[in-house]
Write a structure and sequence with these properties.
The complex is a heterodimer of chains A (277) and B (78). By secondary structure, chain A is α/β, with parallel strands linked by helices. Chain A is 30% helix and 14% strand. Chain A folds into 2 domains: 4-139, Rhodanese-like domain (Oxidized Rhodanese, domain 1); 143-265, 3-Layer(aba) Sandwich (Oxidized Rhodanese, domain 1). Chain A contains 10 helices and 9 strands. In chain A, strands 1-5-4-2-3 form a 5-stranded parallel beta sheet. In chain A, strands 7-6-8-9 form a 4-stranded parallel beta sheet, covered by helices on one side. The N and C termini of chain A lie far apart (45 Å). The model of chain A has no long low-confidence stretch (mean pLDDT 96). Chain B has a single domain, classed as TusA-like domain (Translation Initiation Factor IF3), CATH 3.30.110.40. A 4-stranded mixed beta sheet of chain B has the order 1-2-4-3. In chain B, strand 3 and strand 4 form a beta hairpin. The chains are: A alpha/beta (277), B alpha+beta (78).
Chain lengths: 277, 78
């Protein structure tokens, strides 16, 4: 199963049995609701993949309910794409993987590339026939919690990758002002982390860069497959994007998303921080 | 013709929400009946702005692509 599907491939796959196209949006009002790939089902990242009121991803049972409501079966090939350059689609990919869905891919370039190519978009919502979905094996080794990161600080076998902007990494800002829910008490980065913003892995049109170019970029900064890699950002979605790049484009065996990310670390009493300003 | 150029913001990492808020602010400065130009750096934002005119108070006259990071829309404020 190819983990990356090209837009031209997807165009030919639309409507085929066993293929489910899913748009994962942070903001469906400015994306899915205005137009989506014909037949695409919506996952609203905030409402569908996150638990409330606590901060966490949905449980396996909730994932089963979500898949069943969306008419997705265990054997379906799910192709994910979305707004914000596929950040939330790759987050969903990470959740699907942890909950054992094997046939899953990302649409290269997401909404952006599909639209740029002038491929069809519709406002028509698909008619969904609910399914009965069952989560099989749950694999949480792809997720890092606060204590996992703390234990690995300065561990030579682990490398932390901070995929936020350089301004956030250096400690100039905690988060842009437009994101009041993502601010932290402290600015900076986790000690020892290297800064490789997520966007370094993509072209102007949002598609992935050449694999060898990406490999060189990471390896020059010490991010190599013999290490355990933990990626983080501010709330976990850009980290999930880089997780996808490292795990599925470069084939690194041990990559984990620290989805607590800076909005947890930067607020945690006693958490060590490095800062460059 | 007045121009709302959102490309610089989009070069920063958290572009979309920031750009939309800035866009709304700039749009509020344009008078009813005035023509204006919008420039964004990606096709997704281009698509959104083409389809949000009714909600945000403008009518799209034409749209086109100038370059790989230059997507334009000409509109009139309602």
């Amino acid at each position: 199963m190819e983990k990356v599907v090209q837009p031209e491939q997807l165009k030919e796959m639309l409507g085929k049995e066993g293929v489910k196209v899913v748009e994962v949006d942070y903001d469906p009002k400015t994306a899915y609701e205005l137009g989506h790939i014909p037949g695409a089902i919506l996952i609203d990242w905030k409402k569908d993949l996150n638990k409330y009121p606590e901060r966490d991803i949905i449980s396996p049972e909730e994932f089963e309910k979500l898949m069943s409501r969306l008419g997705i079966s265990n054997d379906d090939h799910v192709i994910l794409y979305g707004d914000y350059n596929n950040w939330f689609a790759t987050f969903a990919f990470w959740v699907f993987e942890m909950y054992g869905h094997e046939k899953i891919s990302i649409l290269n370039g997401g909404r952006n590339k599909w639209i740029e190519l002038g491929y069809p978009m519709t406002k028509e919502k698909p008619v969904i026939e609910p399914s009965t979905y069952k989560v099989g094996k749950v694999d949480l080794t792809k997720r890092a919690y606060f204590l996992d990161v703390m234990k690995r600080l300065r561990d030579p076998g682990t490398i932390l990758v901070d995929v936020r902007s350089p301004a956030e990494y250096k400690g100039e800002i905690t988060a842009p002002p437009e994101y009041p829910n993502e601010q932290a008490q402290r600015a900076g980065h986790i000690p020892g982390a290297v800064n490789i913003p997520w966007a370094k892995a993509v072209n102007d049109d949002g598609t992935f860069k050449d694999v060898e170019e990406i490999r060189k970029l990471y390896e020059e900064l010490g991010v190599k497959p013999d290490k355990e890699v933990i990626v983080y950002c501010r709330i976990g979605e850009r980290a999930a994007f880089t997780y996808f790049v490292l795990r599925h484009l470069l084939g690194f065996p041990k990559v984990r998303v620290y989805d607590g990310s800076w909005s947890e670390w930067g607020n945690m009493v006693g958490a060590p921080i490095e800062k460059e300003v | 013709m007045r121009t709302i150029d959102l490309r610089r913001l989009a070069e920063e990492e958290d572009c979309t929400s920031s750009a939309l808020e800035l866009f709304k602010k700039r749009l509020s400065e344009i008078a009813g009946g005035e023509r204006f130009l919008m420039i964004v750096s990606n096709a997704d934002s281009w698509f959104a702005l083409r389809n949000m005119g009714g909600e945000l108070g403008y009518r799209v006259i034409r749209y086109w692509k100038e370059g790989s990071r230059d997507f334009r829309i000409e509109a009139v404020r309602e």
